[in-house]
Amino acid sequence: MAEAWRLFDETVAFWRNWLSRSTYCGRWREMLNRSAITLKLMTYAPTGGLVAAPTAALPEQIGGERNWDYRYTWVRDASFSVYSLLGMGFTDEAAALGRWLRDRVDEQAGKPNGSGPLNIMYRVDGSADLSEEVLKHWEGYRGSAPVRIGNGAADQLQLDIYGEAIDSLNAADQHGIAFGHHGWLRVRDLLDWVAENWDQPEEGIWETRGGRQDFTYGRLMCWVALDRGIRLATAHGRPAPLERWHRERDAIYNQIMDRGWSPTRQAFRQHYNTEVLDSSLLRMSKVGFITPTDPMWTSTLKAMDEELVTDSLVYRYDPEASPDGLRGSEGTFSLCTFAYVDSLARAGQLEKARETFEKMLTYANHLGLYSEEIALTGEQIGNFPQAFTHLALIDAAISLDRRLNRADRPQ
Questions:
Q1: Alpha helix (H) ranges present in 128-215?
Q2: CA-CA distance, 111 to 109, in Å (whole number)?
Q3: Are 360 and 341 in contact (CB under 8 A)?
Q4: How far apart are the C-alpha atoms of 314 and 330, rounded to whole Å?
Q5: Which residue from 56, 190, 197, 341 has the highest number of Cβ atoms inside 10 Å of its Cβ?
Q6: Which residues neighbour 72 within 8 Å (Cβ) at sequence distance 6 or greater?
């Protein structure tokens, strides 16, 4: 018993010491601390890789087939986590994720595959063998089959990962986490590939299995990749083909405004061959592609509110209107709900943003943890706990808290 109490006391002391490094002093600190601890616990210490979730095959619809293995490190999730951890002052963990990303780029330098110079996901040790297998002898959670291990989406082309990766490196650079000459050469290689390959169909952020499309979000994040690369090169006087990067960045911007905008819906659309809305585009104002008060953006928010939002919870998209190669439906996507909070806050709709955020806090379980999605019953569904949800909670809280503080200041 004495040893158990000693281990307990050491554990409490570790986490208190770790949380003392946080620089966040705003609202909802307890929930942000809980989310930060969750991200830390989901990190593989030897490499710095962060798993998307520590579980596999927990369904996005009870009894459905949308059941995936999330015990891997996605470039996207890791990149988003860098931004979130930096926002709370956890620079060591952000730097470790940055090194993990750098190592993946180094390993694949000169060996591009069908998904470009980066895979979309890896095992926590950095290896890339994620062959998908169906365990037919398993019934699945509450009869939700098939049970899959591995992930067949690993070889997909998802153009957005390059923008997320470079954006996280730019954020790290702004917080004093610099990379040297070798690192810059790898970044430059990535950006040269983006400049050459951004204008092609892909599977998109949601890993659809219904065929490649010209997804607006993928184009958006290619714009981010080139924009942040230009900023990094300019800020540090690094050698780069800036004229080409400027040209391609501007071409992406013009294409999105021309083909990603739907005059019919008065909103930005999921891809160029549909009128379907997609809540991944809630990041458009966050990354600086469009100002939060631009009429094109406020009308997009309004359209999403009417179609994708139910009682403050946000769906990714409508799978019936935009077939994704899978049967059934899914719950509301918690990452998107927190992204919605961020977008509302940036657009000056602070009362609505705060109400949505605080309502979302009530869906956490008794330990302050979130899964990937929330069903219409209020039940948490999908893999658990989900890094996406917890990092998005941190981002939304920091953004909303900052704007509430500004609004509270005397004019």
A1: 160-174, 181-197
A2: 5
A3: yes
A4: 11
A5: 341
A6: 51, 52, 121, 122, 123, 124, 130, 151, 154
What are the counts of helices (DSSP H) followed by strands (DSSP E) for the chain?
12, 13
CATH level 2 (architecture), domain 27-402? Alpha/alpha barrel (1.50)
Closest to 36 (Cα-Cα) out of 21, 47, 49, 58: 21
Angle at 373 between CA 367 and CA 377, to 5 degrees: 85
Determine the Cα–Cα distance for residues 154 and 77; give it in Å rounded to an integer: 14
Local structure of 34: helix, strand or coil:
helix
Structural domain boundaries of the chain?
A: 27-402
Percent of the chain, pLDDT > 70?
A: 95
Q: How confident is the model over 29-53, as pLDDT tens digits? A: 999 999 999 999 999 988 888 999 9
Q: What is the mean pLDDT of the chain?
A: 91
- Is there a contact between 252 and 297 (Cβ–Cβ < 8 Å)? no
Q: How far is CA 99 from CA 79, 126, 133, 177, in A?
A: 11, 11, 30, 10
- Counting residues of the chain whose pLDDT is more than 90, the rounded percentage is 73
Residue 374 near residue 381 (C-beta atoms within 8 A): yes
- Nearest to residue 282, comparing CAs of 258, 264, 298, 265? 298
Label residue 288 left, alpha or beta by phi (over 0 means left) and psi (-120 to 50 means alpha): left
What is the amino acid identity at position 151? N
Residue 405 burial (C-beta neighbours within 10 Å; 0-12, 13-18, 19+)? exposed
